[in-house]
Each structure stands twice: as C-alpha cells, then as structure tokens.
Amino acid sequence: MTALEAGLLGQTLLLVLAVAAALLTPTRRRSRISGTICTLLAAAGIITGAIALSGGTGSLSIPTALPLDPLVLSPDRLGGLVMMVVSSVGVLASLFGIGSARVASASRTAWLSMAVFLFGMQLVPAATDVVSFLLFWEIMTLGSTALLLAHHATRGTVASALVWYSAMSQLSFFFVLAGFAMLAGLAGGTGFDRLATVDPYSWQASAAFLLLLLGFGGKAELVPLHVWVPRVLPEAPGHVAAAMSGAMVNIGVYGALLVFVRILPSGPAWWGVLIMALGGVSALYGILQASVASNLKVLLAYSTTENMGLVFLGLGASVLLRADNATAAADAALVAALLLMLSHAAFKSTLFLGAGAVARAAGEMNLDRLGGLGSRMPWTAAAFGAAAMGAAALPVTSGFVAEWMLLQALIHGSRVDGEVVSVAASVAMPLAVAVIALTAGLALLTFVKAYGIAFLARPRSQEAKQAREVPVIMRIPLVLGALLVIVLGLLPGPLAVAIGSAVGPELTPDVRTIGLAGVDARGIDAVLDPTTFVMLAGLLLVPVLIVLFVSARRHPTRISPLPWAGGGSRLRPRMQYTATSYAEPLVRVFDDVLRPSRDVEVTHVGESRYLVERVHVEQSVSDVVETRLYRPVLNLMQQFGILARRAQNGSIHRYLSYSFVALLVVLIVVSL
Amino acid sequence: MTGVAAIAIALVQLVLFVFLAPLLIGVIRQVRARLEGRAGSGIWQPWRDVRKLLVKNPVRAVDSSWMLAAGPVTLLVSSLLLCALLPLVGTLPLPLIPSDLFVIVSVMLIGVVALALVGLDAGTAFGGMGSSRHMTVAALVEPTLLLAVYALSIPAGTSTLSLIVETRLENPAVIISPVSLLAMVALAIAIMAETSRLPVDNPSTHLELTMLHEAMVLEASGRDLAWLELGSWLKLAALLGLLSNLIVPWGVMTDWSALGVVIGMGTVTVKILLLGVVLSVGEVFLAKARLFRVPELLAGSFALALLAVTASYLVA
C-alpha cells in the first residue's frame, strides 16, 4: 500500500469515526470531540493532497454492481493541490467550530453533516472517472445542505434559503451530469482518460462545454447561478460559511480545470471568450453588489462571486490564448487563476471566520450597527484586517500577487513577438484589464468599508459597545488564516512552481523562483519579489520612525473628547458615517445597474408645510438577476401550478378517466 | 555594479524629492496667489508648516485607535516607495524590484487606503464623508489608470517603467504617436483625480461639504497631520515627475555617471516645477466639478485610455 492509498483510506476511516463521534458523544463534549476529529479528517486531506502533489501514486478502487467501469480514486498532482486547499480551509473551519458551535450548530446532525461535507469535498479531486466524481460531488452537496438545516428551527429565513440552495445546487448537478453524459456517450466510457479522446471541435463537445461551464459556474457562485449565495451564506454559522465559501467554490473551479486543462485542453477560441465573459460579468456584478451591501456576510458572499469571476476570467484567458498559440501568456494566465484560487481560499475563509467571531461577540451582522470593534476585539480585528487586505489585492498579500500575475499575463497576451495574435484577443485583453481594474477599485472600497466601519470609529449600537474578544480556540484559526494570507503573498515563487508542476505534465509553465522566494515568469518577462519589496519598505520606515520617536518623546499625544469635531458632531455616535452612507455615492453612480428602491417618508409638524418632525428614509438594493431572471420563471411555474390544480381536483372519477385516456393513447401509439 | 548604482539613484531620488515636494506645493500656491492678486505666503511656507507641525503635541479623539497614528506613517512610506521606485532621476532598475507600473499603482493604493481609514477612524461625519468620496473616486480612477498603463506598455513590450522611459528616449516618435498622446491625456486626468487636484477636488477649500482630501485629515493634528501632508505632497511630486519624464524623457540618466546624476536631478527639478506652474495656472481657470459629475469626467478619460489601447492594434 502506498502513502497515497493510506491517506485515502485514512480519510475514510476518520469519516466513520467522525460520524460515530457525532452520534454517540454527549451534548456537552460533542463540539470538542467531533470538532477535533473533523480537524484530523481535514488534516489527513492536507497530507494526502501533499503526497499527490509531490508525485505520489496509488489508487483506491471501489467495485460496484453497476455495469460501469469500477470507481477509482487516484488524485493526480492537480487533484492533490485542490485537495490540499480545501482541506486547509477544512482545518480552519473545524478548529473554529470547536469554539463557536453552540446549541443548534452543535447538534448531532450538524457535526455529522460537517464531517460528510468535508469528506465529500476532499475526495472530489481524487476521482478519476465521471461516476465517482459525481458521487462525491453529491455527498458534498448533501452534507452542506444538511449542515445549513441546523438553524431552521430558530430562524424562519433559513427554510427559504435552503430551498434556494437545494434547487440551485441540484440545477448545477444536473448541468454537470448532462455535460459529462454527452462526453461519455461520445467517448464510450466514463474514465477521464477516455473522455480526453473526444474531439473538442465536434458540436457535442461544444454542447457539453456549455453544460459543464454552467454546472461548475453554479458551484463557483458565478452569475447568473449565484442567487443562492446572498441568501444562504448569511444564514450559515461562521465556520460553515467559511467552509462553503472558502473551500466548496474551489471544487467548482476544479471541475472547470479538469475539463479545460485535463480533458479538453485544446478547445476552440470561443470557449475562452465565453468563459472570460462569464467571469468578467460575475466579477463586476459580484463586487458591485458587495460594495453596496450593509450586511457583513452578504458583502462577503457577493465578494466570493467576484473572486471566482476573476478566477474564471484567468481561466478563459488561458483557453483563448492557447487557442491563439500565445502559449507563454496562456500558461501565465492559468498559473494566475490558480494563485487567485489559493489566495481566495485563504482570505475568504479568514474573513468568514472573522464575521463569525463578530456575530458571536456582538450578535449583529449589520455594519450600520457595528463600529469600534478594533479596540474590543484586537485579535479578530487584526486577522480580519490582514484578510481584507488580501481581498482588496493590496501588496504584499497573496491576493495582490495573484492579480498582478493575471494582469501581466493579459497585457502580454495580445502580442507574440510584436505580432497581434488575433482580433478576439486584442479586444478581449484590454476589456479584461479594464474589468479587473474596476473590480479591484471597487474591492478596495468594499473592504475599506467593511473594516473601517466595523472595526474603527465608535460603536453604533449597545451590542457593539459590549462586544468582547472571542475565546482562544477561535482565535487560533483566525490568526492561522491571516498568516496564510500574508505568507502565501511572500512566497509566490515556490507557489507558482508548485502550481506549474500541478498543471503538468502536458502544460509546462515557464516559472521559477528568484531572489527571496520571488516569482519570475520568464515567458512574459515579469519579475516580482515581495520579500525584497517589504525589506525596502522597512528601510524607508526607519528614518520616519526615528523622527516619530524623537518627536513623540518631546511632544506627547493629548487625548481630547472634542478635538475638532465640526460643530460638536462627535457628541453622538449616530452622526458617524455608516456602511449605507459610505456606499451612497456608488449607489448613485451605478444607479442603472443596481436599481435601488428608495422610500422617503416625511412627517410634518401639525399642519405646517415647512416644519418637519421626522424623516424616514428606506433604501434597499435587490439582486437584479433574481428579480429580472428568476422571478418571471418562478411566476410562470406558479401559474402553471395553478392551471395544473384545475386538472387535479381530487375526484377519483377524473383520475380514473385520466388513466383510461392515457391507456388509449399508449395503445394507439404502440399500434402505429 | 548596476545594483549599487540603482540603489544610489533611489537614495538620491528620495532625498531630492523629500526636499522638492514641499517646495513644489509652495510654488503652486504662490503662483496661484499671484495670479489671483494676492501676495501669497512664499514658496517655503509648506516647509515651515511641516517643521511647525512636528513640534506640536498631536491631539487625538477619545475613541480613535492606533490607526490615527499608523495610517499617516503608512501613507508617507507608500509615497516614499513611489519616489524610490519611479524612474525620476535615472532609469537604472533596482535588483529584483523592477519599477513595474502595476506594482507602483498598488503601492499608491496602500496610501489611498491608509488615508481613507484615517478618515473613518475619528468617528465623525466629515471624516466618513471624505473617506467615502475619496474611495469612490479611487475606485473609478482605477480602470483608467491600468488601461493607460497597458497602452504605455505596448510600444516597449513591458510594463516596467524604466524600460518604457528608455524606449521613449531612444525612439521619440513614440511620444507623439496618437496611442501615446491619448494614453498621456488619460493618465494625466487619472493623476489629477488620484492627487485630489481640481477639477475633482479643491485643495484650498474651506467648506467641509465640498471637501474630499481635506475632510479626511480634519481630525489629524501635530505630526500625524505632518505625515499626511508630506505624504500627499510627495505623491503629487512623484507622479508629476513620472508624467514629465514620460512626456519629455530627455535628461534622465540611463547609465551611471556623476555628471548624469547632476543633470538628472537638475532636469527633473525643472520639469516638475514647470509642470507645477502649468498645473497652478490651469487651476485658476477651473472650478471644482460637482461630485456626481466626476464619474463622467473619469468615464471620458477611461474612453480615451481604451481608445489608446485599441488604436495601438489598428495603427501599429
């Protein structure tokens, strides 16, 4: 038995153990015991993934009674990488869960489904054939659905969120199933190596491409299949949201990688254009919604749509450029997409854990009622701040390195040796750069808002005022996550090399380590060494700090309740800017896209037209995709249901006549 | 050897710009004062302001956090980084840290974010208002900025600024090509917006409701304010220096020599001060645009930048 096989078996055994623990342990100790076993399960995933990434081989074969090829689990390097990423998030989420899971989220069902969810996610990248892929995909989906059920008894909104989630995840499962079925029919087998024999230029392959793109895009929360995200993630406890938004979306990306890198690496150029368009629209729409959201978890949920959009943008660029024979830039775009996926896993899980900590401490997710948490929860604030920098792609976090690499790939993509490669590329690349730039700018605003309003300034409510730092067991995953965001940003060289080996052996991105763990993408002449960069900034800081300390010794700071305050406006914390007012200029600028509904109600004093007693302003931004695309479809279905009700009035006579007519029709059809 | 020379050039640039930035602001204010018929406070007043602020006790609000102290320092360091990385006196690239335009834009954004957080930290209405507007403008400028970078990178085949400047030096026809002209106009508008100049923001306003930059620094005082002011001035000086070296690259040192350093320092000083005078004269004739007209201006500059990139495929 090889190490890889041991790792796969180990995960299965730990799942059994986790299920037993969830069912058998008493309520008081359940979170501690089950959480620990889930952590171990995820840790086993990290080890297995690392073995697969470093080239370990081995396979686990599951015999079935079905007339299919046997199910074989054998992660390749790419699968190993993805397994490592999702398991790392799993470790953080499980550790956090030990401390944070209470009452409903610490129930038997909750911990059992957490283990099942983690197990499913970790083994999807190990699948080598369609059937086992879909099997673990469904295990993952069912696990997460049951996990979300935990709070249905206490909050009415959970049920409706869950219906959306189930419907959307089954829709994307259907797309994936149909897409793979088409490919399998064409190839005459279900193994991925068999599927690779399909001609990517046949129409069936293109139809399968469309279906798979929709299916995987749905799991990766892309527009227009993202509608479940802003409903479901705010209802989930922090650690569950972290696991879903930090890890599960990566499975969607993995599916896309599997199809566009492993199975059909040489697709036509229009595939790339379509993926880029889908990614670009998702990125813009996601960040626009995130920037105007006031609920911290809704904000983070929409930001996931944005980040996944960017990942798909990179992926699409790589498909398009490969079709145009701009191989160096195509490889760089692929590496950038994977770097983005990695960094997103780190910062988004930390952000959601931070939101979970805030929810526990202040019992409030509405940014308009938070504030001043920085001094009350310094650990959470620091971790959230570092992760927010990653999400805003500021140097030198992992998010920055990934976005830099993507931009470099794009500007080098439209020309090879000074020759324009294709019209499609020379239109798509500038537009992609513009989309990324606007996305990055809005992401900056979004996360300045999220951090600044929640953690700086003064508390805007009593709950925020009384918030206290979370216990140590919850701080550990927060700090670990924040460290990951920064360390991944400082080590782009080794990371890029690892990613390069993961997408091989067919593709060989020309990247190497340079300087102090910096990255050198030789194909596109791009060099970045974040560590040297930090050292330079540190050097520049020295003289500033010397002046600062000299000045501070002679002229100490004075604390005053009213230093300037523009006419005493500091007197009441209510007069501060809130998240809603912070985003107000943006709502106006993007009025046509967001279509906010505003309601201003003025109460006058007595009969006076001029004296106002009270002004009540209400503004809400709804999801345009939901109201414009899904509502009409749902209404249509409802009308159909009403019509169908007329046919089904409960009369036994009517049903008997239906079956008689049906029988007649069958007989006539058969006799024809 | 080039590594040592590059580090020396970076040091020269830092010292020169720390000296030059307040002087540039002084010149801009003095020219404006004279054009408006006022006596003005002299070109050394910004220097005296900084010295004065450093020997004052900073006053901080009760609920403000460490951000009010750390934010200004961060802004200053990000501006210093700009001065060290941009090809202002010479184009010798630092080892391992090329003057990549995307990196430079990100360094600038660190300062933008630090300033916005300082504005929020004090917990007043004006600070939040300034911060919100500042970030909205910053978000909308970003596409113009990066597309202009893209357009500039096409003739040189790289986004490394020192190479872009060298290409322009070797082949001056690039400078007056339509692609480059469009990109320069777009870049100039983006820089005006980034550095809070007219018509996006009025740097000399005393009316809080129209403030962008000033509203964020209202609560800062003493050395905090000194860092914020110096940081913003350095950013303006460095970006004007970049703009002038892109338009008129002559005088920039490409190979290490003592004479080259002196010439480089002299020419960049003259270029920046001249550009400062032009800016100041231009600002006399401009009024601040309404906040919600700013997106239109930025959309216009974005269109120019996009045109520049697409034109490069059609023309070249």
From TrEMBL, chain A:
Keywords: Cell membrane, Membrane, Oxidoreductase, Transmembrane, Transmembrane helix. This is Hydrogenase 4 subunit B. Residues 127-421 form the NADH:quinone oxidoreductase/Mrp antiporter transmembrane domain. It is a multi-pass membrane protein. The chain crosses the membrane at residues 6-25, 37-58, 78-98, 110-127, 133-150, 162-187, 207-229, 241-263, 269-288, 300-321, 333-358, 379-407, 427-457, 478-503, 533-552, 655-671. It comes from the Bacteria. It holds the Pfam family Proton_antipo_M. It is found in: Cell membrane; Membrane.
From TrEMBL, chain B:
Pfam families: NADHdh. Keywords: Membrane, Transmembrane, Transmembrane helix. This is Formate hydrogenlyase. It is found in: Membrane. It is a multi-pass membrane protein. InterPro entries: ComplexI_Subunit1, NADH_UbQ_OxRdtase_su1/FPO. The chain crosses the membrane at residues 6-28, 66-89, 101-123, 173-193, 233-252, 258-285, 297-315. It comes from Cryobacterium breve. PANTHER family: FORMATE HYDROGENLYASE SUBUNIT 4 (PTHR43359), FORMATE HYDROGENLYASE SUBUNIT 4-RELATED (PTHR43359:SF1).
